[in-house]
Amino acid sequence: xxxxxxxxxxxxxxxxxxxxxxxxxxxxxxxxxxxxxxxxxxxxxxxxxxxxx
Length: 53
Prior knowledge:
0% strand
């Protein structure tokens, strides 16, 4: 599930860069939500698998 979200993040970030960061609320929300998801997924992986190496 993380890979498709990461690809969405790349698309939203690319869209923002292409439009000189003058993007609408949909892109802002998409970039924010995918960033939050990836942050939480990374934190969960560190908590679950961090001690195993």
